[in-house]
Design goal:
Elements (H helix, E strand, L loop, with lengths): L9 H9 L4 H8 L3 H12 L10 E13 L29 E9 L5 E8 L4 H7 L4 E10 L3 H9 L3 E4 L16 H14 L10 H14 L3 H13 L18
Parallel strand pairs: 1-4, 4-5
Antiparallel strand pairs: 1-2, 2-3
Helix pairs in contact: 1-3, 2-3, 4-5
């Protein structure tokens, strides 16, 4: 909270975030301007870890979803014309106009992570970036689709993998291995993101952390209090106001 002029409002601000108040409603409720509400959101989101818990074990489902690459707010586009809100990719299929978010779901705990990993199709390197550091690799059975990158990642890391094949209508393996929980998370995530009317890609990981945060605490008061304490206790997450718009989630 270093550098904030009205620190006494931060606790209330986080509670409004827990209840998913918009920036406009937040500024009215707390008596701050919209730019301050935006800056505070990203200062707080910067303190939320990607997974919000310990490494994943047991059966872990993994799959990717896609968002259009967005430079919302950039007044100096050089490589393409500005899109209207929503918009479409220039080419058909998954390509560099799309940003890939890798989702993993741990069945034991119900914990999930959503990590921005690359642009375009998923790669083995992207899976390692988004998933590798969160797995207890000797204690995991990975459920994934038929994409070869998941198989390559599993082989390299000596992880047992169960693959589904949608084109063959093979949605469940051995009656228990599937990625249906992840597919459900993707549906909820897409609907949840609509409320923000488009998010610049450079901020996308922060909003993935925000989604995980809201999903984790649900309607539990005790969970919300714990989450508040965790946010305020984080070290080395300070970000200057002037640097907020310089964040990058894909390098």
């Amino acid at each position: 909270m270093s550098g904030l002029h009205r620190k006494e409002l931060v606790s209330g601000y986080i509670k409004l975030m827990e209840h998913e108040f918009s920036l406009d409603k937040t500024k009215v409720r707390l008596g701050i301007n919209k730019k301050t509400a935006f800056d505070w959101r990203h200062k707080i989101l910067n303190s939320l870890s990607t997974n919000g818990g310990s490494n994943m074990t047991g059966v872990v489902e993994a799959d990717e979803t896609f968002f259009l690459y967005s430079e919302k707010g950039n007044k100096n586009l050089s490589d393409r014309k500005a899109r209207k809100r929503g918009g479409k990719a220039l080419k058909k299929g998954i390509n560099k106009d799309h940003v890939t978010v890798l989702t993993a779901y741990e069945r034991i705990s119900g914990n999930c992570i959503n990590t921005v990993v690359c642009r375009g199709r998923i790669t083995k390197k992207a899976i390692e970036k988004g998933l590798g550091i969160w797995l207890e690799k000797k204690e995991v059975i990975l459920c994934a689709d038929s994409h070869k990158s998941y198989e390559g990642f599993a082989i390299d890391n000596e992880i047992e993998i169960k693959r589904t094949f949608v084109r063959r209508k093979k949605y469940v393996v051995e009656k228990i291995y599937h990625i249906q929980h992840v597919n459900n998370i993707h549906s909820n995530l897409k609907r949840w993101m609509l409320r923000f009317n488009g998010v610049a890609t450079k901020y996308l990981q922060n909003y993935m952390n925000y989604f995980n945060f809201v999903r984790r605490i649900g309607d539990s008061f005790d969970q919300a209090e714990t989450a508040l304490a965790d946010v305020l206790r984080q070290d080395n997450v300070y970000i200057k106001r002037d640097n907020i718009n310089q964040q990058l989630c894909i390098t």
